[in-house]
Specification:
Blueprint: H1 3-15, E1 20-27, E2 33-40, H2 46-56, E3 73-78, E4 85-91, E5 94-99, H3 101-108
Antiparallel strand pairs: 1-2, 3-4, 4-5
Helix pairs in contact: 1-2
Length: 109
């Protein structure tokens, strides 16, 4: 597949419900260069994403692994008298605070 085709496939797979899509350059048998497609998807979107992969790439087979995930609890607060949002993540006694980057970007523009 060409770079243009890979770019289109990435867009279509994301539109089908993938959370993230990435390509890794690899070598196949006989030293042939190729790209490995990686997709992160929630179970409810799996069929739509599989359809998009077969429709928009040259692959004829898909291997997949189901994984479990532990997430930090997340919430968001507005900072008083500013257009900034604060993202708060926590797990047990661990807490992380981070300003929403898109809000900072808007302020600097």
């Amino acid at each position: 597949m060409t770079g243009e085709e890979l770019s289109l496939a990435l867009d279509k797979i994301m539109q089908a419900g993938a959370l993230d899509v990435y390509f890794t350059p690899i070598y196949m048998k006989k030293g042939r260069p190729a790209y490995k497609l990686g997709v992160i998807v929630k179970g409810e979107s799996l069929e739509d994403v599989v359809d998009a992969i077969f429709r928009w790439t040259s692959t004829i087979g898909i291997r997949y692994v189901e994984l479990r995930r532990i997430e930090m609890e997340r919430r968001q607060e507005n900072i008083k008298d500013t257009p900034l949002r604060l993202k708060i993540s926590s797990y047990k006694d661990i807490k992380r605070l981070k300003l929403e980057f898109e809000d900072i970007k808007k302020l600097t523009e």
